[in-house]
């Protein structure tokens, strides 16, 4: 059973360009979460999606950031007009359908975005 | 407003001894707590979890203790091994399938 897959692992963009980060959840998992880790910080929640639905986007910056999880294919985190402050590690996590109690999230290896 | 706090940035222990990693939280709505281990340039790896109806959960060398009245949890690793050297994150959530709130992490170094 393959784990959570993310690509690319490293991404370099110049200021003003667009960054697209992809995440394929574990087999059987229908819930996807995106987190961002800035240097010397913990992971910060960005958005929670199920297939074709955004469930919680309370951690997403209001501008330039968007996320989707289409019926077919991976989840995409899109950052338009990147700025140097977007440089960070972006992690995707997935979990199975709703359980009766807390459900563990399993993380991918991350995409390290560097904005020049 | 940091709802999950790991106040010690680092811990160094001798191989074979016990490692105790602490975590405090402020949000009384948290009911599920997790510990993750992270190596550089990798994603967090799930270690162990505990729900708020329990005060202890054990898995091999790892034990997590939860003190709800003090809003405190701890991860015990015994015996510690050099391969345990990594950054450990405490995380919490409210209910099933909800976002995780992470602490800043603690760097554990296990000396041979």
Shape of chain B: globular
Supply the number of helical segments of chain B.
0
Q: Show unreliable segments of chain A.
A: none
Spans where pLDDT lies below 50 across 5 or more residues of chain B = none
Distance between the termini of chain B: 38 Å
Key traits:
heterodimer; A: 116 residues; mainly beta; 0% helix; B: 112 residues; five-stranded antiparallel sheet
Give a structural overview.
The complex is a heterodimer of chains A (116) and B (112). Chain A is mainly beta. Chain A has strands spanning 5-7, 10-13, 19-24, 31-37, 43-50, 53-56, 65-68, 75-79, 88-95, 106-107, 111-115. In chain A, strands 2, 4, 5, 6, 9, 10 and 11 form a 7-stranded mixed beta sheet that branches. In chain A, strands 1-3-8-7 form a 4-stranded antiparallel beta sheet, with no helix packed on it. In chain A, a hairpin with a 6-residue loop joins strand 7 (65-68) and strand 8. Chain B is built from no helices and 11 strands. In chain B, strands 2, 4, 5, 9, 10 and 11 form a 6-stranded mixed beta sheet that branches. In chain B, strands 1-3-8-7-6 form a 5-stranded antiparallel beta sheet, with no helix packed on it. In chain B, a hairpin with a 6-residue loop joins strand 4 and strand 5. The N and C termini of chain B lie far apart (38 Å). The mean pLDDT of chain B is 94. Classes of the chains: A mainly beta (116), B mainly beta (112). At the A-B interface, strand 4, strand 5, strand 9 and strand 10 of A face strand 4, strand 5, strand 9 and strand 10 of B.
